[in-house]
Every structure is written in structure tokens, then in C-alpha cells.
């Protein structure tokens, strides 16, 4: 994989910028990557009355063509970032708006997960909570016994949530139907005798062909899943059929040395009919822990894994990834070591090209060569007030409008 050149590596109040974090999310909105929230044991947020001050309650935007990081508003009355923005779910809803679900409530000193749904606008830098309908038992359970028990997948019309519920001892499926307002929660109840009796945490899901595929996770934080009957590996993936309402294991062909692994806290993105899995912690039989450095691709039609690429260094876990409009898989944040409470977090952006870039994006890359992109970034970084003047001058110089809008 390749590393993007982060233009602002200077210290801000003696902290790196952006603040490295695990438990964050990254989403591609046009030419920008938007990073929301996370947690860092070396960060202390003094502006919130929180039980846990390690929350990185911030929103950052990274422009792919200028290489410029900017921090969005979070603390004014109307733009206040929700306190539970760690271990949340975030997805592009429109080209300028994120859909954000829940997150950890450890900030309140409890082991639960929030159920609140928000829209975040990168244009106005503001949050808006969304009221959803449906009987209360149809929404995901919040009293699940662990704040890392959620995974989500959004297909543009339906948000599917897979919750590891310690109280019921099961994986539970809920869906938020967003095709029309008001948005409505529905619990998808498995057939009698077809439950999945292993409440995973730090797992990931994708939905393909009306099936929910579950990747990674464990029943306890940073420890292997050793309950009797649990037999999930990358070669045998827990799968919930949304039509028949039954759990089963999907058998997948995979290289011999990876057939038995089951990563904790990986990140998974669906691209076409392939699931791309990056990172995760691997628990070995000798009680050692490794980090997965390979980027693994699962063809969900052929049910076959291949090693697609490799992360920088020794890998990472508890990170985030997303698909950009340019066909690149972007990976951000996470833990770079195996000691969760103390290890270094990352604020680097890595990428790998997963599909052929369109002519439009190829043209943009040509326009914003590394040297020219650095010049623009330097001029843009002075202040937002100067950006309008810079854009006006670029237009006078004949710079195309379609490319100018990608700088914002």
C-alpha cells in the first residue's frame, strides 16, 4: 500500500495533528476524507464532563488533492460533536452529509452503546439528531454489556446493524429503513433454533445478496474466542440470511496459512462483489498476538480469499477504512502495537487502488501533481478567508471549474 503525504505534521498544542486515534471512522465524501472521533490514551479532553477524557471528540477533513488537513467545528452550541463518537458507525449519506450511529457510552462510565442517529454536514460543520420510529424493541439494544458490540453497513437505503448482546448471548440484527421519512427501525428475528449464540465485539459486517457476512471479533476484549461451538475463521464465516432468517457458516477457499485465523478489530469494506479486509489482531495458540498486515480480498461470488496487498509496517487493528470515489481503498488510524492501553495510534492515511480510476479522476490526479498540489495546499492553509481570493485568481488563470470544486 502507499502512504499519502500528510501536509500538516506540526504540533497543535503539543499534540500531533490530526490527533491519532483508534475507534474512529473514515468516510469519503467526494474529494475529501472525513475522520470522526476515536480514542487515544495519551489525549485528554478537558472541555467535556466525561468519565473517560481520552475521547478524540473532533472531526477532521483531508483533501485528497491538496493534501491539507482541516479541523471542523465541534464545541459551539449548534455544532457540538456527540460525546459517544468512538466505536460508532459512520457512512456517506449524500456528497456532503454523513450518517452516524451511536458509539461507546464509556464516557458516562457504563458498558453500553448509544442508539442515537445523526446527520453531520461538512458544508455547515453541524450535527443534527434524527428521530426514528418503530417499536422500542425493534431498535438495536443499548444495554448490551459492552460498548464495542456494534457493527454496521449502509447500502444507501437501509442501515443494517449487527450487535453482540451479552445479555441475550447472541448476535442480533436490526435494520433502519431510510427510503422515506420518518426512518423506521425493524428487528430481524432469526427462526427458532437458528440463532447465533456468540455475542461478538469488534466485528465487522457487509451485506451482499441479501446476506449479512460477519468478519472477526471476539466475546471478550482483546482475547481469543474460545467458547464451545464457536468455529468461525476466515475459511468459515458466520452468515445471516435476511430472507430465510437463519444463521449459518459460509465456507470459503483460502491460502493454507490463513485458513484458521480470525482477526480481532479488523476493518472491512465492500467493493462490488468483493469484501476487502484490512488489519486486525491475530491470537495464536501459543498465547502470542500478531497484527495482520495483509489486505485480504474475499470474492463473495466465488467464495475465495486472495491476498491483495499489504499494509505499511507490521499492520494495525482497531482502525478504519473506506472506499473513495477514485476507486481507492483508504485506511486510517488504529493501534500500531498489541498493547491497547498504551500503544501508539496512527494518523496516517494509506491507500491501495482497488478498481480502475475513471478518466475524470485520472485527469484530476494529473492536474494536481505532487508539486502543484503542495503549492495549493500551502496557499490554502493560511486561512479560510484567503481561499476565496485564491480561487478567484485560479479562475482568472484559466483553471477549470470542475477541478476547483474538488479543492473545497
UniProtKB/TrEMBL annotation:
InterPro entries: Kelch-typ_b-propeller (IPR015915), KLHDC10 (IPR052125). It comes from the Eukaryota. GO terms for biological process: positive regulation of stress-activated MAPK cascade. Gene3D superfamilies: Kelch-type beta propeller. Keywords: Kelch repeat, Repeat. Signal peptide: none annotated. Coiled coil: none annotated. The keyword Amino-acid biosynthesis does not apply. PANTHER family: KELCH DOMAIN-CONTAINING PROTEIN 10. This is Kelch domain-containing protein 10. It comes from Toxocara canis (Canine roundworm).
